[in-house]
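Hi V.,

You were right to ask for the full record rather than a summary. Here it is.
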Amino acid sequence: MSRAGLVLVCVMAFLTGEGGVLLKHLPVAYVIGVAMVCGVLGCVSWWKGGTTHQSRGDASFESFIAEMKGVCPWMTGEDVLLVRQAFSSLHPLSRGDEDLDGVAQAALRLAERACLCHDEQRAWAFWQRYQEVSAWQQGQEYTWLPLPEALEEV
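Predicted structure:
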């Protein structure tokens, strides 16, 4: 069982025990309403954040995410999730459970978004990531092309 699963089981056991105490002091409808709201918020949180296998505790990855948000003001919350998915592993073949198609599609969607926002340098980088993962899907190696001079920042 994963650490997160164990924590969830412990929290559920605690809440079940406390639920009996609450029912003695509060109306049943109120307790059911609070439980439903908590359940819905938990599901929404899981749904929004459950798109990547990346551990959020990795400090270097989190600094990469923060840097991407800093240089890409056009990024929305969904784009940040795509970045997490597209770059969750530097070499997806090192993890058997990695969904290479999902990684490639996330990189492609980011490349398209960057193009639409006229951020050619990031579009180029996301396109390179897409090409890299596509090559891995076919069992090939891929070497990123050098950044075109026209895209280098001054």
